[in-house]
Amino acid sequence: MDTNKGRAYLQYIKRVKNFGWMIRVFSGFYTENYPDAAGVSKYPVVFLTFYSIFSAVRHRLAHKIGHVPLDAESQKIPIFRYGIPDPRTKKVPVWCFWDGDKEWAVENILMNSVNFP
Predict the structure, then answer these.
(1) Model-level pTM?
(2) Suppose 74 and one of 28, 38, 40, 70 were both cysteines; which one would form an S-S bond, judging by CB atoms 3.0 to 4.6 Å apart?
């Protein structure tokens, strides 16, 4: 995927019901054109998220460079954290965690002190 910082590489992991297409994003921005997909898949992973990757490919916002099978460990859903900041305080009063099956809320974690723009 081209960005204003250079080319970023990501990999589709799987579709997750009610959330969409889970992808992993590899570290760094690069200028080389479409290196070997197997080599790219060995780059460090910065984060996982949900993204409409197939729509991005269809609209030429992202480009497929190859296919690299994922091992069972890479296909697991990690624990995702999310929270909704209070508009007045800009702090998240309650964080929620989700592991692909269950969801739970946690109050008063260290992240509550983070301010959001």
Answers:
(1) 0.76
(2) 70
Quote the CA–CA distance of 101 and 117 in Å, as a whole number: 31
Cross-strand bridge partners of residue 7: 2, 30
Tally Cβ neighbours within 10 Å of residue 81: 13
Tokens 């290196």 sit at which residue?
35
Please count the CA atoms within 13 angstroms of the CA of 76 that sit on its side-chain side. Answer: 5
* Nearest to 2, CA basis, from 27, 38, 31: 31
pLDDT in tens, 2-22: 889 988 999 999 999 888 999
Q: What's the pLDDT tens digit per position in 25-41?
A: 999 888 877 678 888 88
The Cα–Cα gap between 7 and 40 comes to 12
74-97 mean pLDDT = 90
